[in-house]
Write a structure and sequence with these properties.
- The complex is a heterodimer.
- Chain A has two domains: 194 residues, HUPs (Rossmann fold, 3-Layer(aba) Sandwich), CATH 3.40.50.620; 80 residues, no CATH class.
- Chain A contains nine helices and ten strands.
- In chain A, helix 1 crosses helix 2 and helix 6 packs antiparallel against helix 7.
- Chain A is globular and about 55 Å long.
- Chain B is of the alpha+beta class.
- Chain B contains eight helices and 22 strands.
- In chain B, the strands form four sheets. A six-stranded mixed sheet of chain B has the order 2-3-1-4-5-6, sandwiched between helices.
- The chains are: A alpha/beta, B alpha+beta.
- Chains A and B meet through helix 1 and helix 2 of A and helix 2, helix 4, strand 2, strand 3 and helix 5 of B.
Chain lengths: 302, 414
C-alpha cells in the first residue's frame, strides 16, 4: 500500500480537525460543550491538534447538573488547567433556584432534562453562535439523522424536517442573529473508533472508566452507583461490585457495567465482544420512549 | 492497514434496500441486542408480524409513522479490513436531493436491481446520479435471485442490459453481484445456491475494492480555513495557515502560489498537530508556514506554482436544486466553495436534465425542487476552482439563500 494513504483513524481525525477549524473560521463566539466524558475529552484533544501551536480559540463550557461523579469534575479542572483553556461552568442548581423549575421526583430523579434550560441560558449569556458537542451518529437513531452543522433556532430547537442538506465537506454555518449551530465533529466515529483513537493518542481519562470497586444498587438489570442523589427504599439490593463506566453522565442516569477491565486494551477487548449498545447498556434516560432523544433534541438538548 | 470506505445504497424499500443494510449490519454483528429488542417492541406496537429491519434505519418519528425513509441516515460497521460508513438514502424521485446529499461523499454506490424486473427507470436515475457525482465505484446488486430460481441466464441478461447504461453514462469500475438480501445469499458469505457465480460476494468486494486512487495526489490544492497566530513571546512572528489538503502532496521548500491573488512564495514548514513533517498529502489536515510575509486569509487556495488552478468569475455548473422556492435566472445567492464564500448571480439556465432519460429541456424559465440544471453563474470576485471531473473536492460548491441562509443548491463545476 502506498505511503500516501491514511488509515481509518487518520481519516476520521483529519475530518474532525477540518470541522473544528471551520467552526473557528466561520463563527465569532464558538464554545466547546464539555461533559467530562471520553467523547468530549477526545474533542479537546482534537481541538489541541487543530490549533497548535496556538491555543484552543474557544472556551470549554460545562453544564454542571450537580449530580456528577467527583472523579469527572476533578479531571475536568485538571484538563482545563493543563491545556490552558478557559473553563466556564454553569450550574443547573442555580437555574432551578432562579427560575423555580420543578425537579423530577422518584427513585432516580434526574436533572438530565433540566440541563437544557441552563444550556440555553448559558448560550444566551455568552452569545455563543456555535457549540461543539461530542455526539456520535452511532449512538442513537435520531442522532444518525442529524447534520454535522445542526442549526438550532433561538429557542434552541432542532427541526428534523427542516435540516439543511450537507454536501461534500462544505459546511454552511450562516445563521440569523439569536440562532446557533450545534457542531458534531466526531459524528462519523463509533464507540470503538473513539477507544482505538484514545489508545493510539494515549489520551488520559477519568478513573471511573476503568474497573474499580463500587457500591451499587441493582435495578431492572442496571447497576446504579449509590449516591446522595438517588432514593433508597426498603428491599433495595446493594452490593459492592467491580465495575467500570462505559459512558459518563449523571450519577442518577448513568449505569455501570460489571467489568475487570483495567487498561484501554482490556476495554477495547470488552467492547468488541459486547452485544449491547453503549446507550442501551448504560443510559437510563433513553428508556422513556422510542423517540426520547428526538424529543429532547427538538427542545434544545445537546 | 485498516482503511475507510464510504458507500451509498440506492433503491427503495421494495428493492430490499433496508433488508440488505440490515443483513450487512446483522451479519457483521453491528446490530446490538438491545437495538434488536427495541425493533421488536416497535414492531409489536405497530401490530405487525415479523421484525422489520427497516425500523433500524428509519430514525425519525415521522419516518416510522409513515413507514418511509425521508432523510439520509448514516450507519457504521467494520470488519478487520475496513471501517464502513453507509449513507442510507431514500430512492424515490421526490427525494433526489437526499440521494445526492448521501452520494456526495461516497466512494462507492450499490445500485439495487430487482431480478424479476431488470433495469427499470429508477435504476437509470440512480445510475445517472452516480455518473453526475462521479462516484468512482459502482456495484450492481441484482437482488431477489431466489425469486427467479437463482437463474444464471436472468443474471447474465441483466448484466448485458446494464452494461449499455454504464457505457452511455461513462461509469467506470462496475461490478455485478447476484444476491438475495432476504436469505443472505452472496452478502457476507458466498451462496451455495448460485455456485455458477465466480465473483466475490458483496462484503468481500466492499472489503477489497481499491480506493487509494480515488484521491488525486498529482494536482496540489489547499484551501485555507484559519490563520493561526499565537502572538506569544516565543511565537511572536508565527503565522500558520490551517487547512485540509484537498488533493496532492505538499513538502517543505515547494514553490507555491496563493490564489486568487497570484502571490508567490515557498513553504517554510508543513506541520501536523504541532509537529513538523517532511511532507503531507490529501486528505490530511495540516498547517503550512510560508517563507514570505504575504497576505493570505481564509478562503484563499495555496497551489504549487508549476500547477495552477483556473481562477474565474463566470462558471458553468451543474446544479441540483434543493429548495421549495424555485431558482429563477437573475436570483442572487452566496456561493461557497470549500472555505471561500462569495456573492453570486445565476445568469442563465442552459438546460434542465431529465434524470430518468438524460434528455435536455433547453432554456426552462426556472428550476424547482430536485431539478438538475446546467447554469451559468457569475461571482462577485474571482474564484479559484477545478472542474468537478478533475478534482471533485475543488470543483464542488453550494448555493446558500441570502435571506433564509438555507443551502439551496449543490453545484458541480464543469
Amino acid at each position: 500500500m502506498s505511503k500516501y494513504h491514511l488509515d481509518y483513524l487518520g481519516q476520521l481525525e483529519s475530518e474532525s480537525i477540518h470541522i473544528m477549524r471551520e467552526v473557528a473560521g466561520q463563527f465569532e463566539r464558538p464554545a466547546l460543550l464539555f461533559s467530562g466524558g471520553k467523547d468530549s475529552i477526545t474533542l479537546v484533544h482534537l481541538a489541541l491538534k487543530a490549533f497548535r501551536p496556538g491555543k484552543i480559540p474557544f472556551p470549554l463550557v460545562h453544564i454542571d447538573t450537580g449530580h456528577n461523579f467527583q472523579e469527572a469534575l476533578d479531571f475536568r479542572d485538571e484538563l482545563a488547567e493543563h491545556v490552558d483553556a478557559k473553563l466556564i461552568v454553569r450550574k443547573v442548581e442555580d437555574t432551578i433556584k432562579l427560575k423555580r423549575l420543578t425537579e423530577q421526583k422518584g427513585k432516580f430523579a434526574s436533572r438530565n432534562q433540566l440541563q437544557t434550560y441552563t444550556l440555553l441560558d448559558t448560550i444566551e449569556e455568552f452569545e455563543f453562535d456555535a457549540c461543539i458537542g461530542g455526539a456520535r451518529r452511532d449512538e442513537e437513531k435520531a442522532r444518525a439523522k442529524e447534520r454535522i452543522f445542526s442549526v438550532r433556532d433561538e429557542f434552541g430547537q432542532w427541526d428534523p424536517k427542516l435540516q439543511r442538506p450537507e454536501l461534500w465537506n462544505t459546511y454552511n454555518g450562516k445563521i440569523h442573529k439569536g440562532a446557533n449551530v450545534r457542531v458534531f465533529p466526531i459524528s462519523n466515529w463509533t464507540e470503538l473508533d473513539v477507544w482505538n483513537y484514545i489508545r493510539r493518542e494515549k489520551i488520559g481519562l477519568p478513573s471511573i472508566y476503568f474497573a474499580h470497586d463500587r457500591e451499587v444498587l441493582e435495578h431492572e438489570g442496571q447497576l446504579v452507583a449509590i449516591s446522595p442523589f438517588i432514593r433508597l427504599d426498603d428491599g433495595d439490593k446493594i452490593s459492592t461490585k467491580k465495575v467500570r463506566y462505559r459512558t459518563v453522565g449523571d450519577m442518577t442516569c448513568t449505569a455501570a457495567v460489571e467489568s475487570g477491565a483495567s487498561t484501554i486494551d482490556d476495554i477495547i477487548k470488552e467492547i468488541i465482544a459486547t452485544r449491547t449498545s453503549e446507550r442501551g447498556e448504560t443510559r437510563i434516560d433513553d428508556r422513556v420512549s422510542e423517540a426520547a432523544m428526538e424529543d429532547r433534541k427538538k427542545n434544545g438538548y445537546f | 492497514m485498516m482503511d475507510l470506505l464510504r458507500f451509498i445504497t440506492a433503491g427503495s424499500v421494495d428493492d430490499g434496500k433496508s433488508t440488505l443494510i440490515g443483513r450487512l449490519l446483522y451479519d457483521s454483528k453491528s446490530i446490538m441486542v438491545d437495538q434488536l429488542e427495541a425493533i421488536e417492541r416497535q414492531t409489536k406496537n405497530r401490530e405487525e408480524g415479523e421484525i422489520d429491519l427497516a425500523l433500524l434505519t428509519d430514525g425519525l418519528r415521522a419516518e416510522r409513522e409513515q413507514g418511509i425513509t425521508i432523510d439520509v441516515a448514516y450507519k457504521y460497521f467494520s470488519t478487520p479490513k475496513r471501517k464502513f460508513i453507509i449513507a442510507d438514502a431514500p430512492g424515490h424521485i421526490q427525494y433526489t436531493r437526499n440521494m445526492i446529499t448521501g452520494a456526495s461523499n461516497a466512494n462507492l454506490i450499490i445500485i439495487l436491481v430487482d431480478a424479476r424486473h431488470g433495469v427499470v427507470e429508477q435504476t437509470r436515475r440512480h445510475s445517472i446520479i452516480a455518473s453526475l457525482l462521479k462516484i468512482p465505484h459502482v456495484v450492481v446488486a441484482i437482488n431477489k435471485m431466489d425469486l427467479v430460481a437463482n437463474s444464471q441466464d436472468v443474471f447474465n441478461n441483466i448484466v448485458i442490459e446494464y452494461a449499455n447504461v454504464a457505457k452511455a453514462l461513462d461509469l467506470k469500475d462496475v461490478t455485478y453481484i447476484p444476491i438475495s438480501a432476504l436469505n443472505g445469499d452472496n452478502i457476507v458469505d458466498r451462496s451455495v445456491n448460485m455456485d455458477w457465480f465466480e465473483g466475490n460476494c458483496l462484503l468481500e468486494h466492499l472489503e477489497t475494492v481499491h480506493v487509494e486512487n480515488d484521491i488525486n495526489l498529482t494536482d496540489a490544492r489547499f484551501s485555507v480555513q484559519y490563520v493561526i497566530r499565537p502572538q506569544t513571546v516565543e511565537l511572536h512572528d508565527y503565522r500558520g495557515y490551517a487547512g485540509k489538503i484537498n488533493s496532492g502532496i505538499y513538502a517543505k521548500g515547494d514553490s507555491i502560489t496563493v490564489l486568487p491573488a497570484g502571490l508567490t512564495s515557498r513553504i517554510k514548514s508543513v506541520e501536523i498537530g504541532g509537529d513538523e513533517v517532511a511532507e503531507a498529502f490529501a486528505p490530511q489536515s495540516v498547517v503550512l508556514q510560508i517563507e514570505d510575509d504575504i497576505d493570505i486569509s481564509r478562503g484563499d487556495v495555496i497551489v504549487k506554482s508549476d500547477n495552477l488552478s483556473p481562477v474565474e468569475q463566470e462558471l458553468e455548473v451543474l446544479v441540483c436544486w434543493m429548495d421549495n422556492k424555485p431558482l429563477v435566472p437573475g436570483n442572487k445567492y452566496f456561493f461557497q466553495i470549500n472555505s471561500r464564500v462569495v456573492r453570486s448571480v445565476v445568469k442563465e439556465i442552459e438546460y434542465r436534465l431529465d434524470v430518468n432519460t438524460l434528455q435536455k429541456d433547453y432554456h426552462p424559465s426556472q428550476a424547482v425542487l430536485n431539478d438538475i440544471i446546467k447554469a451559468k453563474i457569475k461571482t462577485a470576485s474571482p474564484v479559484p476552482y477545478d472542474s468537478y471531473k478533475k478534482i471533485q473536492v475543488n470543483g464542488s460548491a453550494i448555493l446558500i439563500d441570502e435571506t433564509s441562509h438555507v443551502t439551496v443548491g449543490a453545484c458541480m463545476i464543469q
